[in-house]
Amino acid sequence: MAGVEAVIHDSAMTWDLQQDCVDCAAYALRELNLTDQNKIAEFIKSEMDSKYGLLWYCVCGHSFGSLVGHEGGDCIYFSIDDIFFLLWRMDKAYESREVDVKELLAAQQRKREAVKVHY
C-alpha cells in the first residue's frame, strides 16, 4: 500500500506474499481504521485464509514473545509504525488431524504428575 512504511524483521516468504501481508495489515490500519488489536488480527487472518487457503494465524501488538511452527515458506514478522505483526500458516498435515480431547487431557495430567518435584 502506497505511503506505508513497513519494516520486515524476518521472513520465510516470497516477496509477493510478503507484500500482500503488509498490504493487508496496512489496509486494516489505514483504510478500515481498526485500532483493536484482536480485530486487526482477525481481519488479517480472514483475508489470508480467503486468498491462500486455511490455517493462517496472526498475532499483532506492541509487545509479545513467540515461537511458532509453520509451513515451509509461510511466516513473516514485520512492523508498521509501532505495531508488530507475526503471520504464519500451520503445517497442512494438521488440518485434518483429529484429537481425542479426553486422552489429550489425561496425557497432560500424567505429564504434570511425572514432573512434580518434592522438597
TrEMBL record:
Gene3D superfamilies: Protein Inhibitor Of Neuronal Nitric Oxide Synthase. One of its GO terms (cellular component) is cytoplasmic dynein complex. Keywords: Cytoplasm, Cytoskeleton, Dynein, Microtubule, Motor protein, mRNA transport, Nucleus, Protein transport, Transport. It holds the Pfam family Dynein_light. Signal peptide: none annotated. InterPro entries: DLC_sf (IPR037177), Dynein_light_chain_typ-1/2 (IPR001372). One of its GO terms (biological process) is protein transport. GO terms for molecular function: dynein intermediate chain binding. SMART domains: Dynein_light. Its main location: cytoplasm. It is found in: Cytoplasm, Cytoskeleton; Nucleus. Belongs to the dynein light chain family. This is Dynein light chain. It comes from Strigomonas culicis.
